[in-house]
Amino acid sequence: MEGILISHITIQERIRAMCGQIAEDYKDKDLYALVVLKGAIPFFTELLFNSNMTLPFEYGPIKVSSYEGTKSKTLRVEQFDFNDVTGKDVLLVEDILDTGNTLSHLLQPLQQSASSVRTAVLLDKPERREKPINADYIGFTIPNVFVVGYGMDFNNRFRYLQHIGVLKKSMYEK
Ligand code: IMP
Ligand code: MG
Asked: pTM of this prediction?
């Protein structure tokens, strides 16, 4: 690990503020929080425990897998019935908005069935964007570094860290 980028306490304080904003924005809506597995689990859990149950919202998981082809990566949504969110005000909860490919892949079918769709991301790396997409709720905007912890992984490791750390370049560059 190169070092800590965002401490656990800073993450918790920021999520508490985001939760207040979301609760205010959704007070007259039929909120369905759609949690993108696996990275968004800690972020969503913290959001959930700060919600004070003022909103009787629903939540559920969605998983996107990517297949590395010879030229490009193909994204596929696993085991999700888009009818489940028909008429709901969907808030897509994701760990990090990077190239934007994952969120744009999910937004299109969701917008067809849901009554409204917004996105909440813990981290945003705008420098890496390939798709013209921005999140509605952003925890922290960070530079183009590879981070792990608080749900985010490197080869499925380090998700359990309470803080967000920067991974040494030597771990992924040869
Ligand atoms: P996008 O489709 O490129 O926007 O990327 C979305 C996914 O890439 C995220 O949900 C993460 O799983 C992964 N990702 C992007 N940047 C990082 C990082 O710095 N650390 C860990 N995972 C990342
Ligand atoms: Mg992810």
From this structure: 0.94
